[in-house]
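Q: Entry one of two.
A:
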Amino acid sequence: MKVYEIFFSPTGGTKKAADAVAEEIINNIDSSILEKVDLTDYNFDFSSLKIDKDDIAVIAVPAYAGRVPSTASKHILQIQGNNAKAVIICTYGNRAYDDTMIELYDIVSKLNFKIVSAAAAVTRHSIAIKYASNRPDENDIKKLKEFAYNTIKASSFLDDNKLNGNRPYKKMSNVPLVPKTSSKCTNCKLCAKKCPVQAIDINNPKIIDKTKCISCMRCVHICHCSAKSVNKFMLFLVNLALKKTCSKAKDYEFYI
C-alpha cells in the first residue's frame, strides 16, 4: 500500500507537520511506500492522481486568513479519493485557523475520501515570522507522531461535528502584501520557477503580478540573496495587529 503525503507549503512549515504524520504512519505499517505530492507544483497533473481504496492520504494545508488557499483547493479537488482513508491537517501561524479545518474536511469529503482524523498544528507565521518562529518544535513533533499512531488504530470515521469552524465559511480575503525586489537580485529566476501561482515574471523576476500574488511569501523565503522583501511599514502593521492574538503560544488540536 501507499501513504500519500499531499501538502501545500510555500515556506515549509506545513510540510514539517505533514512529514511527521506521514513518516510515522509509514514506520508503523509494513510494506508501505511513501509518495509525496506538492500542491504548489503548477506543472503537476493532479487529475492523474488516483488514490487506491487501501491507501492512506495525509492532506495538509495552511490557513490563509482563516480559509483554505484557493490554489490548494483547486489542486486537491482534481484528486480521486476512491474511498481511501484520509488524514487532514490544518496549520496556522498561532493566530487562528477559523474555518480552514471544516472547509478542508468538506473539500476532501467531496473526493470520496473517508476522513479518519484531523489535526490543527501551529507553525511559524509565514508573514510575521517572529510569531511561532520555532514551531513545530520537538514537543510538537512528538505529539504529531502520537496522533499518527493513534490514527492507524482508528476504527471509525471522523464526525465533522467535532471540528471547529463555520458553514458558510468566512469571506475569502487576500492580504495585500506583495513582495518587492531589491538590487540584490541576481536574476537566477528561482522565485519565478517556484511561485505557486506564477505571479513572478520568468523573464524579469523583479515584476510581480499583484492580481495573482497570494502573499504566500515563498519568494521571500527561498531567495538566496535576500532580494525579495515586504514593505517594512506594512510588515510593522501586520506584526502590531497580530501581537495580542499571536503572542501566547497555542497548543495543537487533534480529532480522531
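Q: Entry two of two.
A:
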Amino acid sequence: MQRAYWGRAIAGIAAAAGWAGLALQLAILVRGLGFAAGLWRYLGYFTILTNLGAALVATSWVLGRGDLLSSSRSRLTAATCILIVGLVYSIALRGLWSPSGWQKVSDVLLHDTTPLLWFVLWIVAPPAGLEWRDIKWAILPAPIYAAYSLARGAFNGWYPYWFLDPAMQSPIELFVSIVLLLCAFALVAAFLIGLSRFRPLRPHPSAASPATSR
C-alpha cells in the first residue's frame, strides 16, 4: 500500500516535470522559428517524443485509469526510452552545446530530471507481471524512430542527432549506430525487467509459526 502511494506520488512529480519541460521547449522553439517550423522541429527530437510518451504514461498512472497507457508493458517502454534519453544525452550529446537561461531549464528537465525520476519510480514501484519476452516491446520505439528520423531528414535535410545523420556517417557507420542503439534499448529493458522481477527472499508467514496438530 505504501509502495503504491509513493509510486503514484513520484509518478505525479515525473509527469509534472515532463509536461513543464515539454511546454517550455515548445515555447522556445516556436519563439525562435515560428509556430509551423518550431512545431516541425519540436516533433523531430526523440527526447521530445519520449518525454511526451512518458508524461502520458505517468499521468495515466497517477489517475489510476487502468488503461493501455498504465499497463506494465507501457511503463516498461516509457522507462526504457526515458533512461535511454538520459544515457545517450550524457554520453554522446551533452558536450556538443552549452545551453543557458530557459533553454538550460528545459534541458535539465527533459534530459536529467525525468530520467532520474523514472528510475526512482521503477525502484519504488516496479510494475508486476513483466517477462523477459517483453523486451521486444521496449525496443520497438528504436527502429520506428530511426526510420522516422531518416525519412524526415530525407525530406528537408535536417537530422536531430549526428549518429542518425547520413551526411556525417558512412552507410556502414549509420547501420552500426542503429544496431548499437537497439542493443542499448535491449540492455536497459533487460535491466529494468530484472529489477521488477527481483524480490528479496522473505519467509512465508506460515513458516514462522509452528505446525499445529490435526
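A: Comment on entry two: The helical segments are 2-33, 35-42, 46-63, 72-93, 101-124, 135-139, 141-156, 171-197. Residues 2-33 form the longest helix (32 residues).
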